[in-house]
Every structure is written in structure tokens, then in C-alpha cells.
Amino acid sequence: MFDEIQTPAVLVDIDVAKRNIERFQAYADSHGLKVRPHIKTHKLPAIAEIQLDAGAVGITCQKISEAEAMIAGGNRLTDVLITYNILGDDKLHALVALARKVRLSVVADNATVVDGLSAAFSAAGVTLDVFVECNTGADRCGVGSPQEAADLAGRIAAAPGLHFAGLMTYPPVDGAAKVQAFMTEAKAVIETRRIAVPTITSGGSPDMMSAHLAPITTEYRPGTYVYNDRSLVARGVCGWGDCALTVLATVVSVPAPNRAIIDAGTKTLTSDLLGLIGHGHVLGRPDITIDQLSEEHGRLCSAGDIALEVGQRLRIVPNHACVVTNMVDGVYIYRKDKAPELRPVPARGKIV
Amino acid sequence: MFDEIQTPAVLVDIDVAKRNIERFQAYADSHGLKVRPHIKTHKLPAIAEIQLDAGAVGITCQKISEAEAMIAGGNRLTDVLITYNILGDDKLHALVALARKVRLSVVADNATVVDGLSAAFSAAGVTLDVFVECNTGADRCGVGSPQEAADLAGRIAAAPGLHFAGLMTYPPVDGAAKVQAFMTEAKAVIETRRIAVPTITSGGSPDMMSAHLAPITTEYRPGTYVYNDRSLVARGVCGWGDCALTVLATVVSVPAPNRAIIDAGTKTLTSDLLGLIGHGHVLGRPDITIDQLSEEHGRLCSAGDIALEVGQRLRIVPNHACVVTNMVDGVYIYRKDKAPELRPVPARGKIV
């Protein structure tokens, strides 16, 4: 069914994606957890709407331009959290414009960002929901202690144009206990200051089925779960049949009995390893390692005879699905027995 | 001069790029070597024309769609080598169309590809120049021995619609001696069969200043040299001042005294390591390591106080320049004391 597609190409099995969406939504529903999927994995308004249909309360984006592209492409995408510290006049101007269109919230982990948001939104006469980003161990962004979280929450609550919306974290691996401890303490300190903490939002597909181990969490932001990938199979979160996104590639050379070259390299699969060895899984060929990528070539090696022919097509589950959809202008959406349709990826490359 | 630019953004100092182009052209001229730059680094017709002005004989592309984008954007780009095994009816059809527009050549390392090219071009009544790709040690594509090279050259020379153009290799690191040995033997065997070997083409920026150590080479295809990058600085090929491409980023969080977060992650810098530790060089701050990237965040660490403030802007030399220009729809071209201009990157994302 993929014979007409020029390779390399990114394929998405929409039925598998729907099943992945429904499975996590059912889990979240059973634990009273709201779902706000991160669109970074698919970057497609149509799939975000499927997530809403399944029960999601809104979407998560990482950058303003990503949110703009999603909102422009989906009439029903009217509740957006941007989990990023936003700075600078141009971006604040764009943020105000977005807040006039949809229910918008953002995060902040420092006073500079809070003060900038307040200046822009109070001047515009618009109120913005702001979460405090908390570092629960991933050591990326986030305030370092519940006390600091409370201090920043107080600053937000007191700032003209802003409304304190709650606490947000992107937790470390196996981080449920840390999330529970940090958030419980932060919430208590904030509430002693008579500030409500309406929402506590956590995320990450690898540990999504352990979200209930941090019961203080009220909302979860999974991203990769919609497509899954080799990194999640390696963690035991899913199987190959749950991987909705694959890369279709053609063998262009078999220069040695145990080596073959495909026409997909880092410009499709990317160099993301996520701690794995090799650059993807060739479906049906667990004996093959993709041991090297250059921009337009992937090198496949096997211990024995690789038994591939020039012209043969393979499907590869990438290490990391999210970054692959950022490499292509379009993906081929398909379902059982229907011809694949090439769909543009509106939120691709939206980095500002 | 970059205050007006929203970050992250890719900046190109066109004066530095020109100097890099001229330096290698002068070296090549002094050794009687033709230059056919690979456009994968800049993906910009205007810079390819600067390379032609400096003395390049044509351009190299990796994929058909890349060649199409370059030709559409540059009237003077009329001599194109695609260094790729091309297969499949749609691609062969596109290749014939290209060959009707420009002087076109391609490579092949196996009989399946040669036979496909021959069928398509003989049917179209067009003649295509075809090189034999040789594996001189990089173990990617390429025939494995001079004997195999001669056999495939013979097949090309005898094939309707094709003309044998010579030998091509992408050599391993420090590969000049291997190139010289392989190509000398292959050329001799081919010539004993009364087939001429008009061109022997090699490539790779890391060893470009050693190209003369393989004097059998008649043409060289450097790519990265136009911008340079951290990988080439690490090899001692150039200095930071020769790096024409940088990524402009903003510090969005300083969550710990020795840690800061910037708004550029793998969606700008990519995960390419090229054997290096860390994900880029912060200009003016050799004490900082970019130790971790996620899609939209870069984590900067220092042994002592990192001494950065939220809102501060930094410029980063990426590990690998070529892949960075593939991440953005546009780059900011600038020269001393002139306002940067945002230029689209026509050959970005051209993977088929």
C-alpha cells in the first residue's frame, strides 16, 4: 500500500494513534486525571482534535509559533498551555494576541519572566494564567524548592495582568515520588499564603502509566504516547505494534554481505539516541542494527548475511518519534486498506 | 545588530563564508584541482553562485529534490552532480527532467541502479553521465575493490543512455593514501579496457587541505568548509573566527548558580555529536559546556558560577553546521555593519 510513496517518507497509522490516545485517556479517566497532550509529537491540528474528542481538556505547546500554527489549523483548539519561559517584546506581543483568541496559559520559573509577562498583559488589559515551573529532579528549567515555588507563586498572584494557575513540572525518569513530595509541600506553603493552587500538571510519556503514583497531580501532558517509538518500546511501555509512526526507506546499496545502505539518514531519523544503541528498529528484522547515519544515508549491519536487495523497502521505528515529524513537510496518514494521504505538518520547524 | 531577531535563529556571516570559499579555491587552484562544492551545508542558491564566482565548476547535491530546489533558485547552477544511487520510476522520471535542464551526472555502486538509469535514459533519448562510487574505507556506499569498479564502469560504458564519467568516493578520515591507491589501480584497470576515466572526484571538508596527497584526484567536493563548525575547529582545520554560521539563543532560565537554560535545543542545534562532547561552543565562553539538549531547551553548565542572566543572548557554534540549516525555514545573512536579512533556505528538508 506504500508503493506509490517516494522514500524516505514518514508514515502514520492513524488507527494505532487513536488506540494509543484512547488507552491513556482511559487510564487518566480512571484516576481522575485531566489530559493535556503535548502536540510536539504530531504537530498536526487534526490529531490534536482526535485527542480532544477522546477527552483531553486542551493542548500543550512548547513555543508561541507552535501554538499559533496549531490554533490556525484547528478551530476547536481553544485551550492552550505553553510550557515555556517567554521573554522579549516581540514574543510578548504575540502572546497577548494569542490570549485574545484562546484560553491561554504559560509557565515561569523566574522573576524576570513573571515581570515581563505582567508588564505586557497589564498594558494590554488582558489576564494571563501563569504556572510556576518546578524542578522535581530533571534539572532543566524550574524553581529548585517548594519555598521558591511559593515565592514565585506569590509574585504572580500579586502581579497586574497575571493569575496564578498552579504548578507545572517535567519530571525525571521514575519521578512520581519526587513529584508527589515537591508538589505536596509547595501546595501547602502556597495555600498558607491564601493563594489557591487550582492545577498541578506533570508530563512525560515514559512514566505516564505511573502518573497515579503522584496523586497530587491533577493534569498530565503526555506527548510521545500518541505515536510511541523505539525508546518507549525499550522501556517496556509499549510494543512494536503500538508504534504508529514509521519511516519508509529504500535499500540503495548492499556493498557487503552484512551491510546495506538505506536512503534515510539524520535528515529523517535524526541523531537522537535517547540512551539507545543504534538509530532505529527495522520492523521484522531484529537482527539488523542501524549502526551509523549520515545526513542522507543509514547504514544497516547484521552479524550474518543481511539478505537485503537494492530497491527493497523497509519500515523503521525511529528512536524518537517527536523529532522525526519535525524533519518533514508532510507525513503520510493511513489506515487499514485505505490509500495513504500526504498531510502537511503545520507546526513543523516552529522554534520561536 | 541582532537585537531585532527573535531567537533561536541561525545567523550566517557572509564575509566569513566568502573568505572560506576563496581560501579553499586558492588551495585547489594551486594544485590543479577542480572544486564542486556540496550544497548540503548552505542549501542556498545564492551561496552556490558565490562558489561558482570563486571558480567552482558546478555543484554537488545528495538528493534529486535538493538539486531541483537549487536549480529553481539559481539561473547559473547548470552543472550538477548528484552523489546518490537513484532508484524507482518516479525518481528516474524526475532525473530525466533534470537532465533536460542542466548538465547532470550521478553515481552508482551497483548493477541494479545502473540498469535502472539506463532503461530510463535510453527510453527518453537522453544521455546521463554516471560515476562509479568507490568505497575507499568509509564503509558506506561504494564498490569494494578496483576490480569491481572496473566491472561496473564497463557496464555503464556499455549501457544505452549512459556515459561513464569517472570515479567518485567519499573517503574516510585521513584517507588520502587510500584514495590514491584505490583510484590509481581502478583507473589503470578501466583504461586497459579502453574506457577513459575523465574525472576522479573526492570530498570531505575535514581533510580538504590534504586533497593534494591523493594527486590522482581531479575534483574535490567540500561541503562544510563554507561555514565551518565546532567539529572542524576540534580537528584544527579552522578557528572560531572562521565559523560563518552561529545560532543566536536567549537565556530563558538560570535555575542554579552553575546552570543556565537557552531556548535552542535539538530542533535548532540537532543531536549530532560528530565524536565531540557537548552540543556546541558558546562564543566567548569556553568554560561552558552545553551538556544536554531536549527539543526546545539547551542546558549550559560551568564548573564555577555561570554568570548569565535571564534574557541575555548568546551565540553558539554548532557541532555540525550542515544539519542546522536543515532545521530552519530561513537564515539571517549579515555582513559587518549591515542589518541582517532573513533569507529562505530553498533546499531545506529535501530528502527524496
UniProtKB/TrEMBL annotation, chains A, B:
Keyword vocabulary terms for this entry: Lyase
Domain D-serine dehydratase-like: 244-335
GO BP field: D-serine catabolic process
Keyword Magnesium in annotation: no
Pfam families: Ala_racemase_N, D-ser_dehydrat
SUPFAM superfamilies tied to this protein: PLP-binding barrel
Single Gene Ontology MF annotation: D-serine ammonia-lyase activity
UniProt cross-references to InterPro entries, sorted A to Z: Ala_racemase_N (IPR001608), D-amino_acid_metab_enzyme (IPR051466), D-ser_dehydrat-like_dom (IPR026956), D-ser_dehydrat-like_sf (IPR042208), PLP-binding_barrel (IPR029066)
Family statement drawn from the similarity comment of this UniProt entry: Belongs to the DSD1 family.
Name the UniProt record assigns to this protein: Alanine racemase
Source species: Pseudaminobacter soli
